[in-house]
């Protein structure tokens, strides 16, 4: 501990002996440093903040209807491409920076410096800043303002240009597909006109024509069998039903409700036939059935008249006339069954004709299938091409409509809104360099150099400060004179006062510089 104090005292004595050298070094260092600090040019910074507002109402409404153009994705691309070479060229020309250029090399260096110095920093998802520093405050403002204008134009104009290009492309494709679709429709129609009965039905294209013909023939055959079974049952029922019934009479002669003779069934059937002819033709199935019913009723009446003409019939008629208690009348149930039987026969005839036509059509299709096996395959290929073209055409039409809606949203409704929160201003105060810190560092560096320099010079001094230093050489030392003479106290005080004044003047200059810096920054 004592040795350390001795060494420290040694260094202090050496520094004090060379204090004026240290003070000179401090003055020279601080002076040179402060001159250098003030020689650094001022740097002015201009900043703008931009907020991007994607319409929170219109965008969800158009999702799935209009072409999806994500504003977030577009802005990310714009941020990355804002400092591209074309934009920097446009920036240089609009801010008159090219007036300071002397050649292509200067232009390349300027573009490289701009790409490094311009900062586009996103703060949030929809908020970001554009910052630039320059020695000239007006140039800093012009650069940020021009970049802001380029960004807004790119955000609105690029999207609309892309939409317009996409719409024109879709229109050209739709025109091309329309021509192809018309050609396919004509080929398909001509092919169907040549083979109208062979090709599948357009209402049911999934079922081949031959298979449809076979199904139709089988269905008609089934209906015919059912109709024949029903007709046979009716015929059996007609055979088991008597054509005449015996009824009791209450008087000598039956009369109608109005006192007139009752109408016969033949007359009623003829009246009904006349009613049918008023609205139907002679070939109508109801008219034909009614005429057959009339013929059947007339035949029954003739048969009954013939039975009365026989001796047994005359006797039975005389007995009936004598008693006038019973009389034979046509059975209405029998007549109804006869009508139903006639209708069943008519239906069987119709189904038989339909079955024959279906069988002939099926046989013709089978013959075409055997003789021209590739006909159906050719039509299927043609129909498949037509279906693909029509589907593509409809899809393009849908895409064009979506593009038109999206373009209208961008141009008329401003789906993406760009709002400048903080517009750029011409900076009045520099942001760099920070002269307060630099001046303070220069002062500390100068004082440090003023302290270190005397100590370093003391290390180079080959004299001995104490007797012990001399004894360390290994030489015999008889003794030392401790005091050669006493310096007057006044001289020592004046020496300290002069040294302190030199240091105080240096610190005063530092204080004056700090006051000047604060006044320049309008802080005091």
Description:
This protein is an alpha+beta fold and 524 residues long. Among the domains are: 2-40 and 433-475 and 486-520, no CATH class; 209-250 and 263-369, no CATH class. The protein is 69% helix and 8% strand. It has 16 helices and six strands. The chain has helices at 2-17, 19-39, 58-62, 71-81, 85-94, 104-117, 137-194, 209-240, 265-277, 285-309, 311-323, 332-371, 374-411, 435-460, 467-471, 489-520, and strands at residues 44-54, 119-122, 127-134, 244-248, 326-330, 416-422. The strands form two sheets. It has a four-stranded antiparallel beta sheet with strand order 2-3-1-6. α1 packs across α14. It starts with a helix and ends with a helix. Mean pLDDT is 75; it is low at 249-262 and 320-325.
Summarize the structure.
With 524 residues, the chain is α+β, with helices and mostly antiparallel strands.
Topology:
Layout lengths: L1 H16 L1 H21 L4 E11 L3 H5 L8 H11 L3 H10 L9 H14 L1 E4 L4 E8 L2 H58 L14 H32 L3 E5 L16 H13 L7 H25 L1 H13 L2 E5 L1 H40 L2 H38 L4 E7 L12 H26 L6 H5 L17 H32 L4
Antiparallel strand pairs: 1-3, 1-6, 2-3, 4-5
Helix pairs in contact: 1-14, 2-14, 2-16, 4-7, 5-7, 7-13, 8-12, 9-10, 10-12, 14-16
Task: Report mean pLDDT, rounded to a whole number.
Answer: 75
Kindly state the percentage of residues in helix. Answer: 55-70%
Q: What Rg is obtained from the alpha carbons, in whole angstroms? A: 61 Å
Output the helix-strand order: HHEHHHHEEHHEHHHEHHEHHH
Detail the poorly predicted runs. Answer: 249-262, 320-325
Sheet with the most strands, sense and barrel status: 4 strands, antiparallel
Strand content of the residues, in percent?
Answer: 5-15%
Helices, by number, come to 16
Secondary structural class:
alpha+beta
Give the spatial strand order of the biggest sheet: 2-3-1-6
Any idea what the shape is? rod-shaped
Please count the beta strands (DSSP E, at least 2 residues each). 6
């Amino acid at each position: 501990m004592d040795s350390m104090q001795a060494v420290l005292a040694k260094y202090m004595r050496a520094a004090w002996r060379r204090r004026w050298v240290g003070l000179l070094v401090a003055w020279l260092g601080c002076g040179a440093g402060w001159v250098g600090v003030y020689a650094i040019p001022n740097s002015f910074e201009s900043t703008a903040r931009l907020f991007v507002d994607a319409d929170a109402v219109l965008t969800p409404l158009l999702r799935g209807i209009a072409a999806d153009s994500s504003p977030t994705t577009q802005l990310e691309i714009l941020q990355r491409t804002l400092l591209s070479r074309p934009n920097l060229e446009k920036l240089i020309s609009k801010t008159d920076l090219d007036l300071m250029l002397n050649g292509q090399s200067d232009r390349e260096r300027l573009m490289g410096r701009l790409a490094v110095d311009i900062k586009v920093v996103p703060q949030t998802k929809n908020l970001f800043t554009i910052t630039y520093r320059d020695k000239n405050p007006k140039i800093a403002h012009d650069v940020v303002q021009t970049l802001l204008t380029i960004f807004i134009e790119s955000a609105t104009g690029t999207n609309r240009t892309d939409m317009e290009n996409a719409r024109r492309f879709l229109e050209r494709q739709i025109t091309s597909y329309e021509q192809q679709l018309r050609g396919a429709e004509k080929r398909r129609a001509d092919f169907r006109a040549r083979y109208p009965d062979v090709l599948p039905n357009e209402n049911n294209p999934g079922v081949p024509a031959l298979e449809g013909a076979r199904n139709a023939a089988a269905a008609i055959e089934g209906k015919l069998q059912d109709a024949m079974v029903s007709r046979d049952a009716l015929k059996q029922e007609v055979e088991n039903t008597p054509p005449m019934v015996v009824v009791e009479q209450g008087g000598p002669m039956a009369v109608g409700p109005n006192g007139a003779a009752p109408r016969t069934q033949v007359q009623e059937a003829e009246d009904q036939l006349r009613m049918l002819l008023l609205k139907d033709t002679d070939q109508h199935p109801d008219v034909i059935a009614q005429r057959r019913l009339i013929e059947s009723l007339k035949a029954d009446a003739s048969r009954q008249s013939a039975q009365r003409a026989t001796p047994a019939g005359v006797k039975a008629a005389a007995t009936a006339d004598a008693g006038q208690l019973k009389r034979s009348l046509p059975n209405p149930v029998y007549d109804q069954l006869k009508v139903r039987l006639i209708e069943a026969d008519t239906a069987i005839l119709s189904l038989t004709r339909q079955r024959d036509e279906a069988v002939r059509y099926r046989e013709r299709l089978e013959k075409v299938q055997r003789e021209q096996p590739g006909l159906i395959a050719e039509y299927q290929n043609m129909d498949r091409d037509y279906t693909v073209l029509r589907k593509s055409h409809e899809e393009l039409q849908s895409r064009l409509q979506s593009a038109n809606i999206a373009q209208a949203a961008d141009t008329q409704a401003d789906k993406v809104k760009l709002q400048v929160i903080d517009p750029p201003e011409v900076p009045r105060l520099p942001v760099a360099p920070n002269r307060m810190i630099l001046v303070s560092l220069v002062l500390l560096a100068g004082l440090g150099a003023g302290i270190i320099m005397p100590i370093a010079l003391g290390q180079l001094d080959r004299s001995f400060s104490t007797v012990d230093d001399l004894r360390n050489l290994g030489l015999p030392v008889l003794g030392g004179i401790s005091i050669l003479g006493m310096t007057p106290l006044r001289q020592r005080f004046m020496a300290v006062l002069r040294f302190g004044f030199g240091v105080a003047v240096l610190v005063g200059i530092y204080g004056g510089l700090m006051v000047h810096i604060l006044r320049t920054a309008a802080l005091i």
